[in-house]
Amino acid sequence: MRNNTPKVPYDDPLRHRKTPREMLKEPISTECEACRDNIIQVLRDTIAVIFVPGIMGSKLKNPKNAPAWNPDDLSFMSGTYMWAKPKDRYNLLIKNKPSLLNEITEKHINYPKAEERGWGSVAWSFYGDLLTSIQDWATPLKVLLDLPVYAFGYNWLESNRVSGEKLREFIHTIKAEKVILVTHSMGGLVARWALGGDEAGDVAAKVLGVVHGAQPVHGAPVAYRRMIAGQEVDGFFNILGMLGAKVLGSDGPSITAIFPHAESALELLPSQHYRTNDGRREWLHVQDPGSPDGLQSYPKGDPYREIYARSSHRDFWGMIHGGWFQPDPLEEGALGRVFHGEATEADPDSEIRARIFLNRLEAVRSFHATIGDYSHPRTMQLFSSGGQDTCSEVSWLARDVTLTVARRPGDMRGDRDMRDRYFALRHIPGILERSRGEYSEVRWVEADGSHGKTVPWDTPFAELDRGIREGRRLILLRVSDFGDTEPGMADTCNLGDGTVPLSSATGLQPDCTTWGNATHTLPFWQNAWHSMIATGCPTNANHSGFFDQSSIQATINTIHNLCLGWLREEYD
Questions:
Q1: What is the rounded distance in angstroms from the CA atom of residue 20 to the CA atom of residue 566?
Q2: Are 98 and 157 spatial neighbours (Cβ–Cβ below 8 Å)?
Q3: Predicted model pTM
Q4: Cα–Cα distances in Å, from 271 out to 40, 113, 346?
Q5: d(CA 202, CA 66)
Protein backbone atom coordinates (compact mmCIF):
# COMPACT_ATOMS: atom_id res chain seq x y z
CA MET A 1 0.00 0.00 0.00
CA ARG A 2 1.25 3.42 -0.88
CA ASN A 3 2.30 5.63 2.04
CA ASN A 4 0.65 9.05 1.63
CA THR A 5 2.21 10.49 4.77
CA PRO A 6 3.86 13.81 3.85
CA LYS A 7 7.64 13.90 4.01
CA VAL A 8 9.05 15.79 6.95
CA PRO A 9 12.45 17.41 6.35
CA TYR A 10 15.17 16.72 8.83
CA ASP A 11 16.43 19.63 10.87
CA ASP A 12 20.10 18.68 10.49
CA PRO A 13 21.61 18.61 6.96
CA LEU A 14 23.28 15.57 5.46
CA ARG A 15 26.94 16.19 4.76
CA HIS A 16 28.79 14.60 1.84
CA ARG A 17 32.53 14.47 1.11
CA LYS A 18 33.17 13.79 -2.56
CA THR A 19 36.14 13.77 -4.86
CA PRO A 20 36.07 15.87 -8.03
CA ARG A 21 35.53 12.73 -10.10
CA GLU A 22 32.55 11.71 -7.95
CA MET A 23 31.02 15.13 -8.53
CA LEU A 24 30.59 14.34 -12.22
CA LYS A 25 28.78 11.05 -11.60
CA GLU A 26 25.01 10.53 -11.41
CA PRO A 27 23.83 11.36 -7.83
CA ILE A 28 22.32 8.40 -5.96
CA SER A 29 20.03 9.41 -3.05
CA THR A 30 17.68 7.50 -0.73
CA GLU A 31 14.20 8.85 0.03
CA CYS A 32 15.43 10.13 3.36
CA GLU A 33 18.37 11.93 1.77
CA ALA A 34 16.05 13.60 -0.68
CA CYS A 35 14.06 15.02 2.22
CA ARG A 36 17.06 16.60 3.86
CA ASP A 37 19.33 19.49 3.05
CA ASN A 38 22.52 18.19 1.48
CA ILE A 39 25.86 19.89 1.95
CA ILE A 40 28.59 18.67 -0.39
CA GLN A 41 32.22 19.22 0.47
CA VAL A 42 34.51 18.79 -2.55
CA LEU A 43 37.86 17.20 -1.79
CA ARG A 44 39.69 19.23 -4.39
CA ASP A 45 42.41 17.62 -6.48
CA THR A 46 45.39 19.37 -8.06
CA ILE A 47 46.41 19.25 -11.69
CA ALA A 48 49.56 21.33 -12.18
CA VAL A 49 50.56 22.97 -15.44
CA ILE A 50 54.31 23.08 -16.09
CA PHE A 51 55.68 25.31 -18.84
CA VAL A 52 59.02 24.41 -20.48
CA PRO A 53 60.57 27.26 -22.56
CA GLY A 54 62.73 27.11 -25.66
CA ILE A 55 66.43 27.76 -26.19
CA MET A 56 67.55 31.15 -24.88
CA GLY A 57 64.17 31.49 -23.12
CA SER A 58 65.57 30.91 -19.60
CA LYS A 59 67.61 33.44 -17.66
CA LEU A 60 71.18 32.59 -16.64
CA LYS A 61 73.67 33.94 -14.10
CA ASN A 62 77.45 33.70 -13.81
CA PRO A 63 79.33 32.19 -10.83
CA LYS A 64 79.23 35.62 -9.13
CA ASN A 65 75.40 35.60 -9.31
CA ALA A 66 75.39 38.44 -11.81
CA PRO A 67 73.19 38.07 -14.93
CA ALA A 68 74.78 36.28 -17.86
CA TRP A 69 71.67 36.05 -20.05
CA ASN A 70 68.47 37.99 -19.37
CA PRO A 71 66.22 38.74 -22.37
CA ASP A 72 63.97 40.86 -20.13
CA ASP A 73 66.75 43.40 -19.54
CA LEU A 74 67.28 44.97 -22.94
CA SER A 75 69.92 47.42 -21.75
CA PHE A 76 71.95 44.56 -20.25
CA MET A 77 71.59 42.39 -23.36
CA SER A 78 72.52 45.16 -25.79
CA GLY A 79 75.38 46.41 -23.64
CA THR A 80 76.78 42.93 -23.10
CA TYR A 81 76.26 41.19 -26.41
CA MET A 82 75.67 43.71 -29.20
CA TRP A 83 79.35 44.51 -29.70
CA ALA A 84 80.80 41.41 -28.05
CA LYS A 85 83.51 39.67 -30.02
CA PRO A 86 83.28 35.89 -30.48
CA LYS A 87 85.81 35.23 -27.70
CA ASP A 88 83.82 37.47 -25.34
CA ARG A 89 80.69 35.41 -26.09
CA TYR A 90 82.60 32.22 -25.44
CA ASN A 91 83.85 33.50 -22.09
CA LEU A 92 80.41 34.72 -21.01
CA LEU A 93 78.39 31.63 -21.92
CA ILE A 94 80.82 28.71 -22.08
CA LYS A 95 83.97 29.33 -20.07
CA ASN A 96 82.16 30.93 -17.10
CA LYS A 97 79.68 28.01 -16.88
CA PRO A 98 76.51 29.97 -16.10
CA SER A 99 73.59 28.51 -14.15
CA LEU A 100 69.85 29.18 -13.91
CA LEU A 101 68.70 32.58 -12.62
CA ASN A 102 65.28 32.85 -10.91
CA GLU A 103 64.80 36.58 -10.59
CA ILE A 104 61.53 38.16 -9.46
CA THR A 105 60.82 41.71 -10.64
CA GLU A 106 57.97 44.20 -10.42
CA LYS A 107 56.37 42.39 -13.38
CA HIS A 108 55.54 39.51 -11.03
CA ILE A 109 54.06 41.69 -8.28
CA ASN A 110 50.48 40.46 -8.77
CA TYR A 111 51.54 36.83 -8.42
CA PRO A 112 52.91 36.23 -4.89
CA LYS A 113 53.81 32.60 -5.63
CA ALA A 114 55.76 33.47 -8.78
CA GLU A 115 59.19 32.79 -7.27
CA GLU A 116 58.40 29.39 -5.75
CA ARG A 117 56.76 28.36 -9.01
CA GLY A 118 59.80 29.33 -11.10
CA TRP A 119 58.26 32.19 -13.05
CA GLY A 120 61.34 34.34 -12.54
CA SER A 121 63.51 31.81 -14.39
CA VAL A 122 61.93 32.35 -17.82
CA ALA A 123 61.84 35.37 -20.11
CA TRP A 124 58.72 37.31 -19.13
CA SER A 125 58.78 39.29 -22.36
CA PHE A 126 58.27 36.04 -24.30
CA TYR A 127 56.15 33.98 -21.93
CA GLY A 128 54.50 36.31 -19.42
CA ASP A 129 51.18 36.42 -21.28
CA LEU A 130 51.05 32.63 -21.49
CA LEU A 131 51.73 32.08 -17.79
CA THR A 132 49.29 34.71 -16.58
CA SER A 133 46.55 33.71 -19.02
CA ILE A 134 46.55 30.12 -17.76
CA GLN A 135 46.87 31.17 -14.12
CA ASP A 136 44.04 33.74 -14.37
CA TRP A 137 41.83 31.48 -16.47
CA ALA A 138 38.25 31.77 -15.17
CA THR A 139 36.89 28.28 -15.58
CA PRO A 140 34.24 26.29 -13.66
CA LEU A 141 36.83 23.52 -13.44
CA LYS A 142 38.42 25.47 -10.59
CA VAL A 143 35.43 24.60 -8.41
CA LEU A 144 36.77 21.06 -8.46
CA LEU A 145 40.47 21.46 -9.22
CA ASP A 146 43.44 23.54 -8.23
CA LEU A 147 45.36 24.44 -11.41
CA PRO A 148 48.68 25.99 -10.34
CA VAL A 149 51.05 27.08 -13.12
CA TYR A 150 54.78 26.40 -12.86
CA ALA A 151 57.67 27.45 -15.11
CA PHE A 152 60.59 25.08 -15.55
CA GLY A 153 63.56 27.23 -16.49
CA TYR A 154 66.77 25.39 -17.33
CA ASN A 155 70.33 25.97 -18.48
CA TRP A 156 69.80 25.85 -22.25
CA LEU A 157 73.54 25.46 -22.85
CA GLU A 158 73.45 21.96 -21.37
CA SER A 159 72.29 18.94 -23.29
CA ASN A 160 68.52 18.50 -23.49
CA ARG A 161 69.28 15.08 -22.05
CA VAL A 162 70.48 16.74 -18.82
CA SER A 163 67.62 19.24 -18.77
CA GLY A 164 65.14 16.44 -19.43
CA GLU A 165 66.42 14.49 -16.43
CA LYS A 166 66.02 17.61 -14.26
CA LEU A 167 62.48 18.09 -15.56
CA ARG A 168 61.75 14.46 -14.68
CA GLU A 169 62.86 15.10 -11.09
CA PHE A 170 60.84 18.34 -11.00
CA ILE A 171 57.65 16.52 -12.06
CA HIS A 172 58.10 14.03 -9.23
CA THR A 173 58.43 16.85 -6.67
CA ILE A 174 55.17 18.56 -7.67
CA LYS A 175 52.38 17.77 -5.19
CA ALA A 176 49.60 17.04 -7.66
CA GLU A 177 47.56 14.11 -8.88
CA LYS A 178 48.54 14.93 -12.44
CA VAL A 179 50.60 17.45 -14.39
CA ILE A 180 50.16 18.89 -17.86
CA LEU A 181 53.27 19.96 -19.78
CA VAL A 182 53.21 22.96 -22.12
CA THR A 183 56.36 23.45 -24.18
CA HIS A 184 57.80 25.93 -26.62
CA SER A 185 60.39 25.13 -29.29
CA MET A 186 63.38 23.23 -27.86
CA GLY A 187 61.43 22.75 -24.63
CA GLY A 188 59.58 20.03 -26.52
CA LEU A 189 62.83 18.05 -26.84
CA VAL A 190 63.46 18.49 -23.12
CA ALA A 191 59.97 17.20 -22.30
CA ARG A 192 60.19 14.24 -24.68
CA TRP A 193 63.49 13.14 -23.15
CA ALA A 194 62.02 13.49 -19.65
CA LEU A 195 59.10 11.21 -20.56
CA GLY A 196 60.63 8.90 -23.15
CA GLY A 197 64.40 9.04 -22.74
CA ASP A 198 66.77 6.70 -20.94
CA GLU A 199 65.65 5.71 -17.43
CA ALA A 200 62.36 7.63 -17.78
CA GLY A 201 60.64 5.11 -15.52
CA ASP A 202 56.97 5.77 -14.80
CA VAL A 203 57.10 9.56 -14.92
CA ALA A 204 54.86 9.64 -18.01
CA ALA A 205 52.07 8.08 -15.93
CA LYS A 206 51.89 11.23 -13.82
CA VAL A 207 51.56 13.39 -16.94
CA LEU A 208 47.97 13.90 -18.05
CA GLY A 209 48.98 15.31 -21.42
CA VAL A 210 51.47 17.45 -23.33
CA VAL A 211 50.94 20.53 -25.49
CA HIS A 212 53.88 21.20 -27.80
CA GLY A 213 54.16 24.62 -29.42
CA ALA A 214 56.46 25.17 -32.43
CA GLN A 215 58.61 22.16 -31.59
CA PRO A 216 61.50 21.26 -33.93
CA VAL A 217 60.61 17.57 -33.65
CA HIS A 218 63.41 16.42 -35.94
CA GLY A 219 65.51 19.59 -35.95
CA ALA A 220 65.76 22.56 -38.31
CA PRO A 221 68.26 23.35 -41.10
CA VAL A 222 68.45 26.95 -39.86
CA ALA A 223 70.70 25.66 -37.04
CA TYR A 224 73.26 24.60 -39.67
CA ARG A 225 72.82 27.84 -41.61
CA ARG A 226 73.38 30.01 -38.52
CA MET A 227 76.66 28.23 -37.80
CA ILE A 228 77.86 29.65 -41.13
CA ALA A 229 75.91 32.86 -41.71
CA GLY A 230 74.79 33.95 -38.24
CA GLN A 231 71.36 35.02 -37.04
CA GLU A 232 69.18 36.05 -39.96
CA VAL A 233 67.46 39.43 -40.34
CA ASP A 234 63.99 39.65 -41.88
CA GLY A 235 64.26 42.58 -44.28
CA PHE A 236 66.82 45.35 -44.76
CA PHE A 237 64.73 47.93 -42.89
CA ASN A 238 63.98 45.67 -39.92
CA ILE A 239 65.91 47.71 -37.37
CA LEU A 240 64.79 45.64 -34.38
CA GLY A 241 65.70 42.50 -36.30
CA MET A 242 69.19 43.86 -36.96
CA LEU A 243 69.62 44.72 -33.29
CA GLY A 244 68.38 41.27 -32.29
CA ALA A 245 70.80 39.63 -34.70
CA LYS A 246 73.68 41.62 -33.22
CA VAL A 247 72.75 40.36 -29.76
CA LEU A 248 72.26 36.72 -30.79
CA GLY A 249 75.20 36.71 -33.20
CA SER A 250 75.02 38.24 -36.67
CA ASP A 251 77.78 36.16 -38.28
CA GLY A 252 79.20 32.67 -38.30
CA PRO A 253 82.13 33.32 -35.93
CA SER A 254 79.75 34.70 -33.27
CA ILE A 255 77.50 31.64 -33.43
CA THR A 256 80.39 29.17 -33.72
CA ALA A 257 81.80 30.62 -30.49
CA ILE A 258 78.82 29.02 -28.67
CA PHE A 259 77.02 26.30 -30.62
CA PRO A 260 79.76 23.65 -30.96
CA HIS A 261 80.24 23.79 -27.18
CA ALA A 262 76.50 23.69 -26.35
CA GLU A 263 75.15 20.19 -26.90
CA SER A 264 71.58 21.49 -26.76
CA ALA A 265 72.19 23.74 -29.77
CA LEU A 266 73.67 20.83 -31.74
CA GLU A 267 70.55 18.81 -30.88
CA LEU A 268 68.57 21.36 -32.93
CA LEU A 269 70.37 20.29 -36.11
CA PRO A 270 68.31 18.14 -38.51
CA SER A 271 68.43 14.59 -37.21
CA GLN A 272 68.56 11.32 -39.11
CA HIS A 273 64.74 11.43 -39.01
CA TYR A 274 64.39 14.88 -40.62
CA ARG A 275 62.49 15.21 -43.88
CA THR A 276 61.89 18.29 -46.01
CA ASN A 277 58.43 19.77 -46.45
CA ASP A 278 57.90 17.52 -49.48
CA GLY A 279 59.19 14.41 -47.69
CA ARG A 280 62.80 14.09 -48.93
CA ARG A 281 65.81 13.12 -46.82
CA GLU A 282 68.21 15.51 -48.61
CA TRP A 283 67.95 19.11 -47.39
CA LEU A 284 71.42 20.48 -48.28
CA HIS A 285 72.11 21.16 -51.97
CA VAL A 286 75.59 22.01 -53.25
CA GLN A 287 76.35 23.36 -56.71
CA ASP A 288 79.54 22.07 -58.31
CA PRO A 289 81.96 25.03 -58.67
CA GLY A 290 83.29 23.43 -61.82
CA SER A 291 79.85 23.01 -63.36
CA PRO A 292 76.89 25.04 -62.03
CA ASP A 293 74.57 22.49 -63.62
CA GLY A 294 76.05 19.81 -61.37
CA LEU A 295 74.28 19.43 -58.04
CA GLN A 296 74.89 17.18 -55.05
CA SER A 297 72.33 16.85 -52.27
CA TYR A 298 72.93 15.69 -48.70
CA PRO A 299 72.53 13.74 -46.49
CA LYS A 300 72.45 10.48 -48.34
CA GLY A 301 72.01 8.70 -45.02
CA ASP A 302 74.12 10.11 -42.17
CA PRO A 303 73.94 13.90 -41.63
CA TYR A 304 76.38 13.78 -38.72
CA ARG A 305 79.29 12.45 -40.79
CA GLU A 306 78.25 13.85 -44.17
CA ILE A 307 77.59 17.44 -43.04
CA TYR A 308 78.25 18.26 -39.37
CA ALA A 309 81.64 16.54 -39.03
CA ARG A 310 82.93 18.18 -42.21
CA SER A 311 85.51 20.92 -42.18
CA SER A 312 85.06 23.86 -44.52
CA HIS A 313 88.77 23.89 -45.39
CA ARG A 314 88.20 20.57 -47.20
CA ASP A 315 84.51 20.77 -48.19
CA PHE A 316 83.38 24.37 -48.48
CA TRP A 317 79.85 23.41 -47.37
CA GLY A 318 81.13 21.67 -44.20
CA MET A 319 79.63 23.04 -40.99
CA ILE A 320 82.85 23.52 -39.06
CA HIS A 321 85.11 26.49 -39.77
CA GLY A 322 88.22 25.73 -37.74
CA GLY A 323 89.40 29.32 -37.76
CA TRP A 324 86.21 30.44 -36.00
CA PHE A 325 86.51 27.99 -33.11
CA GLN A 326 86.95 29.29 -29.58
CA PRO A 327 88.88 29.72 -27.40
CA ASP A 328 91.52 28.98 -30.06
CA PRO A 329 91.23 28.02 -33.73
CA LEU A 330 91.27 24.37 -34.73
CA GLU A 331 94.17 23.74 -37.08
CA GLU A 332 93.44 22.23 -40.49
CA GLY A 333 95.76 19.32 -39.78
CA ALA A 334 93.77 18.36 -36.67
CA LEU A 335 90.47 18.64 -38.53
CA GLY A 336 91.83 16.52 -41.34
CA ARG A 337 92.98 13.78 -38.96
CA VAL A 338 89.87 13.72 -36.75
CA PHE A 339 87.08 14.47 -39.23
CA HIS A 340 88.42 12.96 -42.44
CA GLY A 341 90.94 10.34 -41.34
CA GLU A 342 93.80 12.05 -43.14
CA ALA A 343 97.38 11.17 -42.23
CA THR A 344 98.38 14.75 -41.54
CA GLU A 345 100.47 16.32 -38.83
CA ALA A 346 98.36 18.00 -36.18
CA ASP A 347 98.76 20.19 -33.15
CA PRO A 348 97.98 17.93 -30.14
CA ASP A 349 95.74 20.48 -28.43
CA SER A 350 93.76 21.12 -31.62
CA GLU A 351 93.37 17.39 -32.15
CA ILE A 352 92.07 16.88 -28.61
CA ARG A 353 89.49 19.65 -28.98
CA ALA A 354 88.42 18.35 -32.38
CA ARG A 355 87.85 14.90 -30.86
CA ILE A 356 85.84 16.43 -28.01
CA PHE A 357 83.55 18.03 -30.57
CA LEU A 358 83.24 14.78 -32.53
CA ASN A 359 82.33 12.90 -29.33
CA ARG A 360 79.74 15.57 -28.57
CA LEU A 361 78.30 15.08 -32.03
CA GLU A 362 78.02 11.33 -31.43
CA ALA A 363 76.14 12.06 -28.19
CA VAL A 364 73.75 14.20 -30.24
CA ARG A 365 73.23 11.31 -32.65
CA SER A 366 72.39 9.06 -29.69
CA PHE A 367 69.96 11.64 -28.28
CA HIS A 368 68.13 11.89 -31.61
CA ALA A 369 68.00 8.12 -32.00
CA THR A 370 66.57 7.61 -28.51
CA ILE A 371 63.71 10.10 -28.63
CA GLY A 372 63.01 9.34 -32.31
CA ASP A 373 59.34 10.11 -32.86
CA TYR A 374 58.33 9.46 -29.24
CA SER A 375 55.33 11.37 -27.96
CA HIS A 376 53.23 11.08 -24.82
CA PRO A 377 49.99 9.13 -25.39
CA ARG A 378 47.99 12.37 -25.11
CA THR A 379 49.98 14.85 -27.15
CA MET A 380 48.78 17.97 -28.91
CA GLN A 381 51.19 19.58 -31.39
CA LEU A 382 50.54 23.19 -32.32
CA PHE A 383 52.50 25.00 -34.98
CA SER A 384 52.65 28.17 -37.06
CA SER A 385 52.91 28.33 -40.82
CA GLY A 386 52.02 30.53 -43.74
CA GLY A 387 53.26 33.89 -42.54
CA GLN A 388 57.05 33.51 -42.38
CA ASP A 389 59.73 32.50 -44.88
CA THR A 390 61.44 29.45 -43.39
CA CYS A 391 64.69 27.67 -44.08
CA SER A 392 63.60 24.05 -44.57
CA GLU A 393 66.39 23.48 -47.11
CA VAL A 394 69.76 25.13 -47.74
CA SER A 395 71.60 25.63 -51.02
CA TRP A 396 75.22 26.55 -51.68
CA LEU A 397 75.33 28.51 -54.93
CA ALA A 398 78.51 28.70 -57.04
CA ARG A 399 79.37 31.28 -59.69
CA ASP A 400 82.63 31.71 -61.63
CA VAL A 401 83.79 35.31 -61.16
CA THR A 402 87.22 34.99 -62.76
CA LEU A 403 86.29 37.22 -65.69
CA THR A 404 84.52 39.67 -63.38
CA VAL A 405 87.80 40.17 -61.55
CA ALA A 406 90.06 40.09 -64.62
CA ARG A 407 87.85 42.51 -66.60
CA ARG A 408 87.06 44.92 -63.80
CA PRO A 409 86.68 48.57 -64.89
CA GLY A 410 89.86 50.42 -65.84
CA ASP A 411 89.72 52.76 -62.85
CA MET A 412 89.81 49.70 -60.57
CA ARG A 413 92.85 47.98 -62.06
CA GLY A 414 95.15 49.09 -59.29
CA ASP A 415 96.25 52.45 -60.67
CA ARG A 416 98.51 54.16 -58.20
CA ASP A 417 96.24 57.15 -57.69
CA MET A 418 93.22 54.95 -56.97
CA ARG A 419 94.74 52.33 -54.66
CA ASP A 420 93.55 54.06 -51.51
CA ARG A 421 89.99 53.74 -52.78
CA TYR A 422 89.88 50.55 -54.82
CA PHE A 423 92.49 47.97 -54.08
CA ALA A 424 90.98 44.63 -53.08
CA LEU A 425 88.49 41.90 -53.88
CA ARG A 426 85.67 43.38 -51.81
CA HIS A 427 85.58 46.53 -53.96
CA ILE A 428 84.66 44.81 -57.22
CA PRO A 429 80.99 45.32 -58.20
CA GLY A 430 79.01 42.08 -58.32
CA ILE A 431 81.18 40.32 -55.73
CA LEU A 432 79.41 41.08 -52.49
CA GLU A 433 80.74 40.44 -49.01
CA ARG A 434 77.60 39.54 -47.12
CA SER A 435 76.87 39.97 -43.42
CA ARG A 436 74.00 40.12 -40.88
CA GLY A 437 72.70 36.63 -41.42
CA GLU A 438 73.97 36.20 -44.98
CA TYR A 439 77.17 34.57 -46.14
CA SER A 440 79.37 34.47 -49.19
CA GLU A 441 83.02 33.70 -49.85
CA VAL A 442 85.39 33.45 -52.81
CA ARG A 443 87.64 30.43 -53.34
CA TRP A 444 90.33 29.46 -55.77
CA VAL A 445 89.86 26.49 -58.05
CA GLU A 446 93.27 25.19 -59.01
CA ALA A 447 94.33 24.53 -62.60
CA ASP A 448 93.81 20.78 -62.02
CA GLY A 449 90.22 21.37 -60.86
CA SER A 450 90.83 20.83 -57.15
CA HIS A 451 89.34 23.27 -54.65
CA GLY A 452 91.73 25.77 -53.14
CA LYS A 453 91.66 28.05 -50.14
CA THR A 454 89.27 30.86 -49.32
CA VAL A 455 90.35 34.21 -50.76
CA PRO A 456 90.34 36.94 -48.07
CA TRP A 457 88.20 39.94 -48.99
CA ASP A 458 91.16 42.29 -48.62
CA THR A 459 93.30 40.35 -51.14
CA PRO A 460 94.95 42.99 -53.39
CA PHE A 461 94.42 43.04 -57.14
CA ALA A 462 98.03 42.15 -57.88
CA GLU A 463 97.68 38.83 -56.07
CA LEU A 464 94.36 38.06 -57.77
CA ASP A 465 95.81 38.84 -61.21
CA ARG A 466 98.82 36.64 -60.55
CA GLY A 467 96.60 33.68 -59.62
CA ILE A 468 94.50 34.10 -62.76
CA ARG A 469 97.65 34.18 -64.93
CA GLU A 470 98.68 30.87 -63.33
CA GLY A 471 95.51 29.26 -64.65
CA ARG A 472 93.46 29.34 -61.47
CA ARG A 473 89.81 30.37 -61.33
CA LEU A 474 87.84 32.37 -58.76
CA ILE A 475 84.49 30.98 -57.60
CA LEU A 476 81.94 33.01 -55.61
CA LEU A 477 80.07 30.77 -53.15
CA ARG A 478 76.88 31.92 -51.44
CA VAL A 479 74.45 30.40 -48.95
CA SER A 480 70.81 30.68 -50.02
CA ASP A 481 68.70 33.41 -48.43
CA PHE A 482 65.39 33.01 -46.65
CA GLY A 483 62.49 33.03 -49.09
CA ASP A 484 64.61 31.89 -52.05
CA THR A 485 63.78 28.74 -54.00
CA GLU A 486 67.16 27.73 -55.32
CA PRO A 487 68.33 24.71 -57.35
CA GLY A 488 67.45 21.45 -55.61
CA MET A 489 64.76 22.99 -53.42
CA ALA A 490 61.07 22.11 -53.49
CA ASP A 491 58.37 24.71 -54.07
CA THR A 492 57.24 24.17 -50.49
CA CYS A 493 60.67 24.88 -48.99
CA ASN A 494 59.61 28.16 -47.33
CA LEU A 495 56.68 26.82 -45.27
CA GLY A 496 57.12 27.14 -41.52
CA ASP A 497 57.29 29.71 -38.72
CA GLY A 498 60.53 31.39 -39.79
CA THR A 499 62.68 28.92 -37.82
CA VAL A 500 61.05 25.48 -37.70
CA PRO A 501 59.91 24.01 -41.03
CA LEU A 502 56.34 22.75 -41.32
CA SER A 503 57.55 19.16 -41.72
CA SER A 504 59.45 19.23 -38.42
CA ALA A 505 56.81 21.12 -36.44
CA THR A 506 54.31 18.40 -37.42
CA GLY A 507 56.82 15.56 -37.11
CA LEU A 508 55.00 13.65 -34.36
CA GLN A 509 52.18 11.19 -34.98
CA PRO A 510 49.91 11.70 -31.95
CA ASP A 511 47.82 8.73 -30.87
CA CYS A 512 44.16 9.81 -30.93
CA THR A 513 42.91 6.56 -29.38
CA THR A 514 43.98 7.54 -25.86
CA TRP A 515 41.75 10.62 -25.53
CA GLY A 516 38.55 8.70 -24.76
CA ASN A 517 35.33 10.56 -25.57
CA ALA A 518 37.37 13.76 -25.92
CA THR A 519 38.66 12.60 -29.31
CA HIS A 520 36.02 14.69 -31.08
CA THR A 521 37.50 17.85 -29.50
CA LEU A 522 40.91 17.33 -31.11
CA PRO A 523 41.84 19.59 -34.02
CA PHE A 524 42.27 18.03 -37.43
CA TRP A 525 44.86 19.37 -39.87
CA GLN A 526 45.67 18.36 -43.40
CA ASN A 527 47.69 19.51 -46.36
CA ALA A 528 48.35 18.15 -49.82
CA TRP A 529 50.46 15.25 -48.51
CA HIS A 530 48.80 13.98 -45.36
CA SER A 531 46.26 14.62 -42.63
CA MET A 532 46.80 14.56 -38.88
CA ILE A 533 44.66 14.64 -35.75
CA ALA A 534 45.69 16.32 -32.48
CA THR A 535 47.57 18.79 -34.66
CA GLY A 536 46.62 22.42 -35.11
CA CYS A 537 47.82 25.68 -36.67
CA PRO A 538 46.32 28.41 -34.46
CA THR A 539 48.57 31.23 -35.70
CA ASN A 540 50.95 32.41 -38.40
CA ALA A 541 53.18 34.24 -35.90
CA ASN A 542 56.93 33.91 -36.06
CA HIS A 543 58.73 31.31 -34.00
CA SER A 544 59.78 33.39 -30.99
CA GLY A 545 56.34 35.02 -30.79
CA PHE A 546 54.41 31.78 -31.20
CA PHE A 547 52.34 32.14 -28.03
CA ASP A 548 50.12 34.98 -29.17
CA GLN A 549 46.49 35.15 -28.02
CA SER A 550 45.34 32.56 -30.57
CA SER A 551 47.96 30.02 -29.52
CA ILE A 552 47.34 30.72 -25.84
CA GLN A 553 43.62 30.08 -26.31
CA ALA A 554 44.33 26.84 -28.19
CA THR A 555 46.57 25.78 -25.29
CA ILE A 556 43.91 26.61 -22.70
CA ASN A 557 41.30 24.70 -24.69
CA THR A 558 43.53 21.63 -24.65
CA ILE A 559 44.13 21.94 -20.90
CA HIS A 560 40.36 22.18 -20.41
CA ASN A 561 39.69 19.03 -22.44
CA LEU A 562 42.44 17.09 -20.67
CA CYS A 563 41.11 18.03 -17.23
CA LEU A 564 37.50 17.30 -18.16
CA GLY A 565 38.40 13.90 -19.62
CA TRP A 566 40.28 13.03 -16.44
CA LEU A 567 37.36 14.11 -14.23
CA ARG A 568 35.04 11.91 -16.29
CA GLU A 569 37.50 9.02 -15.84
CA GLU A 570 37.91 8.62 -19.58
CA TYR A 571 41.62 8.14 -18.93
CA ASP A 572 44.02 8.16 -15.98
A1: 10
A2: yes
A3: 0.92
A4: 54, 39, 30
A5: 38
